[in-house]
Hints:
The chain is α+β, with helices and mostly antiparallel strands. Helix content is 19%, strand content 43%.
Amino acid sequence: MLTPFHIAVAVRDIEEARAFYGAGLGFAEGRSSEQWIDFNMFGHQFVTHLNPRLGARGSVASISNAVDGHGVPVPHCGVVLEFEPWLAFAERVRGVISEFIIEPYIRFEGQPGEQGTMFFADPSGNALEFKAFRNIAAQLFAR
């Protein structure tokens, strides 16, 4: 049985994070303070922490690595979903995200690691990936 993960990321503005993750992506808010907010990201604890060093226009730095012909941002984090919930989430975020890093698509089609994937960044530049497999147990670590 998988257990929920906990991850914390730096954000430049707490209210901006609340609007993006809560109102925009639809993640329920848990505990919070003026410095941080817990969000329920598909049953996982995703925490945004205020980092004043990012500044009003600041962005978390990243690099990219080539995967399947796309520049995958590093670092990134996200959630692996079942395929139908991923499709519904992809549809939802199309109305929220103005610019994808990688648009929702099927990667490694017809291969053991076939997956739906999409990448986008939050307003502070934290790269997020949401992916899906038709059979997570059999495909997540398939070679």
